[in-house]
Write a structure and sequence with these properties.
rod-shaped, eight-stranded antiparallel β-barrel, about 15% helix, three-stranded mixed β-sheet, Porin, 60s Ribosomal Protein L30, Chain: A, disordered N terminus, OMP_bac, alpha+beta, about 475 residues
């Protein structure tokens, strides 16, 4: 076809236009190619053999349709919003049927059209769907040229079209269309042009390749999921990463996407012991003995004890009911009233004073005779068994000698005994000494035996 250049020129014109639109806002551009048929018969204004009534024999393909058995139509379109598409179409044909007549020579057909169409798909299907009917209006220009007679002047047309696209996927469709072209000039020819095409949509941008176009992708640079508008859920826990406090670890919605490995109700990031169930008050760590000290800091995790003793209970080594920390005599059983120390009984004190009767001094002196050391050592040992008791060491004399002399001698002898006991480990704070002279006899001073009993050192208890 020597005039194929006109078709190619029209095609280049179509590709050069930037104001046309296509299928939807994500894939705004579309291109369709196919075949077309031209029919001049069912256009009205009947002329015998050339035209019939409107839509008369509309589908009489064999008698009335001129079809070029090759790719003969190309359309480029762009979506402009709300279901509207603007497009331009270039087509060519060879007219071999004009109504029921046959032209004597070949009649070449060229057309360029611009149309606005409106898709009914969303009205019918709600949104989307494979069935996509549409209506359109537009204008165009058509040329007819005969080899035998030369060119027929071109003429403008007003166009009305109806068609349907069948979507085979998101980006490909098959379409059929019928378009009525009304000629304005007298020499123009009213006619129908039918098309069958295959179309492709493109132009949508999907930067992250997740199948969700950037315009609808809230995370256009990171592959994501449709249910999260294109945002990712890295750990697959059903919480998108931007709302997930632990986006790389499978977690629970109640903890903002973080896990609770030990199931203690404390999410792992806030759990100091994430693999062992514990208490919120202890940062998620366990307290086996319930003493308020987490096990990792408790030296006795299975026995309740105070923090000041590192979680261990205080001992009571002597079993007297007074804890060692409060027991002034932790190794000797005592009484609570005496702070854990034993209280000296009357019997023990009497026994000590019996022993003191054998303590002897040098004549008319305060020095203790050596044979009395063993007795005093034994007395000191017994006194140490009562570490919380305080004693008064009393010195006494018989009536021989002056009162002042006897008082002085008793004071010195009592002090001498106290110093000996202090030297044997009795704390000085536990001892006092005092001489009473001859004022407190326990027997008659008229006999040698009585005076022997009155010359004595003895103990009495002091208040603490």
């Amino acid at each position: 076809m020597k005039h194929l250049s006109r078709f190619l020129a029209a095609s280049l014109l179509i590709f050069g236009l930037t104001s046309v639109n296509a299928q939807d806002e994500n894939n705004p551009w579309a291109i369709s190619i196919g075949v077309n048929a031209v029919d001049t018969y069912p256009v009205g204004d009947p002329v015998e053999g050339l035209r019939g009534e409107v839509f008369q024999e509309f589908f009489n393909v064999n008698d009335h349709w001129s079809i070029l058995p090759s790719v003969s139509v190309i359309n480029v379109s762009r979506y402009i919003g709300d279901g509207f598409v603007v497009g331009v179409t270039g087509s060519l044909n060879r007219i071999d049927k004009i109504g029921d007549t046959r032209p004597s020579g070949s009649l070449e057909y060229y057309a360029a059209d611009a149309d606005v169409s409106y898709s009914l798909r969303d009205l019918i299907n709600g949104e989307g769907g494979w069935f996509d009917p549409y209506l359109g209006v537009g204008a165009g220009y058509t040329w007819l040229e005969s080899v035998a007679t030369g060119g027929v002047p071109g003429f403008g047309t007003a166009n009305a079209s109806a068609g349907v696209r069948f979507w085979l996927g998101e980006q490909i469709n098959l379409g059929v269309q019928s378009k009525y072209k009304h000629a304005f000039e007298d020499e123009g020819t009213k006619h129908f042009q039918h098309q069958a095409t295959i179309g492709f949509v493109f132009g949508g941008k999907d930067t992250d390749g997740d199948g969700i176009y950037d315009r609808e992708d809230e995370c256009p640079e990171t592959p994501g999921l449709p249910e999260f508008n294109g945002c990712p859920d890295t750990d697959g826990d059903g919480i998108q990463d931007s709302k997930d406090a632990c986006p790389t670890v499978f977690g629970l919605a109640e903890f903002d996407g973080c896990p609770d490995t030990d199931g203690d109700g404390i999410p792992d990031p806030k759990d100091a012991c994430p693999t062992v169930a514990g208490l919120a008050a202890l940062g998620g760590c366990p307290d086996a003995d319930g003493d308020g000290i987490k096990d990792s800091e408790d030296e006795c995790p299975n026995e309740a004890g105070p923090r000041e003793n590192n979680g261990c209970p205080y001992a009571d080594r002597d079993g007297d009911g007074v804890l060692d920390k409060d027991d002034e005599c932790p190794d000797v059983a005592g009484t609570v009233a005496n702070n854990g120390c034993p209280e000296m009984s009357v019997e023990v004190l009497t026994d000590l004073n019996v022993q003191f009767k054998s303590v002897l001094f040098d004549y008319d002196k305060a020095s203790i005779r050596q044979e009395s050391y063993g007795t005093l050592d034994n007395i000191a040992g017994i006194m140490n068994e009562y570490p919380n008791s305080r004693f008064l060491v009393e010195g006494h004399t018989d009536s021989r000698g002056s009162d002042s002399y006897n008082l002085d001698l008793s004071n010195r002898r009592a002090a001498s005994v106290m110093n000996y006991l202090t030297g044997k480990g009795i704390a000085s704070s536990r001892l006092e000494s005092k001489g009473f002279g001859e004022t407190m006899p326990v027997a008659s001073n008229n006999t040698a035996a009585g005076r022997q009993e009155n010359r004595r050192v003895q103990l009495s208890l002091l208040d603490n």
